[in-house]
Amino acid sequence: MQIRILLVGDDPESAEADSLLLKERGIRVFTAFNTKNMADLIAEIKPDVVFFDPYKPNNQITEAYNNFVNDIKFTQLPVVFTLSDDDVYLVTRKRTASKDRRTGITDNIIGAIKMALSNTITSQRKTHKIHHPNIEIPMLFTRA
C-alpha cells in the first residue's frame, strides 16, 4: 500500500521540490495551498500524514498547523511541520498517544515521515527499553 501525504505549503516551487523528493521514494503526494478547505481535502484524500511546509516568513501555514493540531477531528492523523530553513522537522504523532511519546524532532524529511508513522518517537533525551521475550531494543523518547 502506498503512503499518502497531504503537503500543505505557501510556495508552489518549494512544495514541488519536496513533492518530487517524496514521489521518487514511492510516496503519493497531494499538495494544497488553500488552508481554508483542509477538512474537505482530508476527507477526500484520506492522507496517512499531513505535512505543513511553510516557505515564506508569514503566519498563514503556522496558523493552519495550530488550528489543525487543536482540532478534535484530526487527532488520529500524524503531522509534520518544517521549523526552519535548516530543514528541521517537528513531528506530532497521533494526539491520542501518550504525551511523552507524542512529539519529536528530526533533521530530514524521510525521517520525519517515518517517525510520524511509527509507533514510537525517538529523541536524545531519555532512554527506555522495550522488553520483548527474545529482543531488547533501546528506545529514546522526548517529552511533548
Give descriptors for this structure:
single chain; 144 residues; alpha/beta; Rossmann fold; six-stranded mixed sheet; two-stranded antiparallel sheet; 4 helices; 28% strand; disordered C terminus
Describe the 3D structure.
The chain has 144 residues and is of the alpha/beta class. It has a single domain (4-119), classed as Response regulator (Rossmann fold, 3-Layer(aba) Sandwich), CATH 3.40.50. 28% of the residues lie in helices and 28% in strands. It contains four helices and eight strands; from the N terminus they run βαβαβαβββαββ. It has helices spanning 12-24, 38-45, 60-70, 109-117; strands spanning 4-9, 28-32, 49-53, 79-82, 89-92, 103-106, 126-131, 136-141. The chain has a six-stranded mixed β-sheet with strand order 2-1-3-4-5-6, with helices on both faces. The chain has a two-stranded antiparallel sheet with strand order 7-8. The protein is globular and about 30 Å long. It starts with a strand and ends with a strand. Residues 120-132 and 134-144 have low confidence and may be disordered.
List the helices and strands and how they pair.
Blueprint: E1 4-9, H1 12-24, E2 28-32, H2 38-45, E3 49-53, H3 60-70, E4 79-82, E5 89-92, E6 103-106, H4 109-117, E7 126-131, E8 136-141
Parallel strand pairs: 1-2, 1-3, 3-4
Antiparallel strand pairs: 4-5, 5-6, 7-8
Brief overview:
The chain is α/β, with parallel strands linked by helices and 144 residues long.
What would you say the CATH architecture is?
Answer: 3-Layer(aba) Sandwich
By CATH, the topology is Rossmann fold
Radius of gyration from CA coordinates = 15 Å
Order of helices and strands: EHEHEHEEEHEE
How many β-strand runs?
Answer: 8
Q: What's the arrangement of strands in the largest beta sheet?
A: 2-1-3-4-5-6
* End-to-end C-alpha gap: 30 Å
Helix content: 25-40%
Mean pLDDT: 76
